[in-house]
C-alpha cells in the first residue's frame, strides 16, 4: 500500500508542467512586440484612427464569439469579409501608415543633410514679426527630410531665393499669391499659393481657422514645420508633428526654429527693409518698427 502511494506521488510530481525556458531571444522578441504595440498606440492617439481601431476591436470580438458560439451564418459572413477588411484597413489608415513609414525612413536616412536648413529661418522670423505687427495673414511651410513636391505642384512655382523682402511681398493683402501657403525648400521659396490638406483631428479647438488646420494637416502628413500668423489677432503660431504652439513671441519662434532645424546660423547681413508701398495702410510708425525688426536679429542685443 505504501509502495503504491509513493508511486502515485512520483507520477503526480512528474505530471507537473515545467517552467518554459526563457532565452535571450525570447526576451528580445517580447520587447520588440511591446515596442511595436506602443508605437502603434502612440501613432493613432488623438487621431481619427483611434475610434476606427475601437470599431475594429468590436469586429474582432464579434468574430471570436461567432466561432465560440457556433453562429454559422455570422461566422460565414465575417470569414467571407475578412480578406476584404485587410484592404479596407490599408485604405482607411493610409495616412497613418504613410506617416509611420516616413518617420521610419527619416530616422535611418543619412543621404540628406540639413546643414543649409538652419540658414533660412531668420528671415522667416523677421517676416513673421512684421506680419504680426500689421496683422497680415501668413502661412509658411518649411520642408525638412520628407519632400513636399505634391503640395508644391498645387501652387505657383517660384524657385526664388528666400528673403525677408520676398516674403513680405508675397503675403501683401493685394498680392495675387497671398491666399495660400508658401513652401520653403532649404534656402529657396519653391512655390506660393499652395493648397495643403486640412487636419481631421477631432480634438482640435473649434477656434482654429482653415489656415491653422491646414498647417497642422501638412505636419501630420510630413515632418515639415509650419509658421502661421493670424489675420484677426496677429498671433504667431508654430505647427509641428500635428501639434500647434500658439501665442509665440519672436524670441520663442527663433528658438524653436533653431531647435527644429538643428542648427543656429545667424545671417551676416540684415535684410533690406520693405518699402512703405509694399504694405498697404502701414501705420506712420513703420520706420521705428523696421529698426525694431533689425534689433531682433542675432547680435542686436549686444
Could you outline the blueprint of secondary structure elements for this entry?
Layout: H1 2-15, H2 24-44, H3 49-68, H4 72-92, H5 94-108, H6 121-134, E1 138-142, H7 149-152, E2 156-161, H8 164-170, E3 181-185, E4 188-194, H9 210-221, E5 225-229, E6 236-240, E7 243-248, H10 250-260, H11 286-295
Parallel strand pairs: 1-3
Antiparallel strand pairs: 1-5, 2-4, 3-4, 5-6, 6-7
Q: How does this model look, in words?
A:
By secondary structure, the chain is an alpha+beta fold. The chain has two domains: 47-92, no CATH class; 115-295, DNA integrity scanning protein, DisA, N-terminal domain (YojJ-like (1). Helix content is 49%, strand content 13%. It is built from eleven helices and seven strands. It has helices at 2-15, 24-44, 49-68, 72-92, 94-108, 121-134, 149-152, 164-170, 210-221, 250-260, 286-295, and strands at residues 138-142, 156-161, 181-185, 188-194, 225-229, 236-240, 243-248. A seven-stranded mixed sheet has the order 2-4-3-1-5-6-7, sandwiched between helices. A hairpin with a 2-residue loop joins β3 (181-185) and β4. α6 packs across α8 (164-170) and α6 (121-134) packs antiparallel against α10. The chain starts with a helix and ends in a 7-residue tail after the last helix. The model is unreliable at 110-119 and 264-302 (pLDDT under 50).
Amino acid at each position: 500500500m505504501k509502495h503504491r502511494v509513493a508511486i502515485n506521488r512520483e507520477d503526480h510530481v512528474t505530471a507537473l508542467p515545467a517552467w518554459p525556458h526563457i532565452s535571450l531571444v525570447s526576451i528580445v522578441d517580447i520587447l520588440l512586440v511591446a515596442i511595436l504595440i506602443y508605437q502603434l498606440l502612440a501613432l493613432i492617439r488623438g487621431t481619427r484612427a483611434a475610434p476606427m481601431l475601437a470599431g475594429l476591436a468590436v469586429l474582432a470580438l464579434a468574430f471570436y464569439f461567432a466561432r465560440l458560439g457556433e453562429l454559422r451564418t455570422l461566422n460565414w459572413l465575417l470569414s467571407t469579409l475578412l480578406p476584404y477588411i485587410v484592404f479596407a484597413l490599408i485604405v482607411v489608415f493610409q495616412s497613418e501608415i504613410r506617416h509611420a513609414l516616413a518617420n521610419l525612413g527619416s530616422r535611418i536616412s543619412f543621404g540628406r543633410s540639413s546643414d543649409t536648413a538652419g540658414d533660412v529661418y531668420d528671415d522667416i522670423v523677421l517676416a513673421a514679426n512684421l506680419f504680426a505687427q500689421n496683422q497680415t495673414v501668413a502661412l509658411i511651410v518649411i520642408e525638412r527630410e520628407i519632400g513636399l513636391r505634391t503640395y508644391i505642384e498645387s501652387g505657383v512655382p517660384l524657385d526664388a531665393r528666400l528673403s525677408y523682402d520676398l516674403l513680405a511681398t508675397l503675403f501683401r493683402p493685394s498680392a495675387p499669391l497671398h491666399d495660400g501657403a508658401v513652401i520653403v525648400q532649404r534656402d529657396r521659396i519653391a512655390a506660393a499659393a499652395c493648397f495643403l490638406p486640412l487636419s481631421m483631428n477631432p480634438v482640435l479647438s473649434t477656434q482654429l481657422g482653415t489656415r491653422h488646420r491646414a498647417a497642422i494637416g501638412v505636419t501630420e502628413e510630413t515632418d515639415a514645420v509650419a509658421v502661421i500668423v493670424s489675420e484677426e489677432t496677429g498671433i504667431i503660431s508654430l505647427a509641428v508633428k500635428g501639434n500647434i504652439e500658439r501665442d509665440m513671441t519672436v524670441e520663442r519662434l527663433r528658438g524653436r526654429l533653431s531647435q527644429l532645424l538643428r542648427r543656429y546660423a545667424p545671417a551676416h547681413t540684415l535684410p533690406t527693409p520693405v518699402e512703405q508701398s509694399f504694405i498697404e495702410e502701414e501705420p506712420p510708425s513703420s520706420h521705428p518698427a523696421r529698426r525694431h525688426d533689425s534689433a531682433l536679429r542675432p547680435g542686436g542685443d549686444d
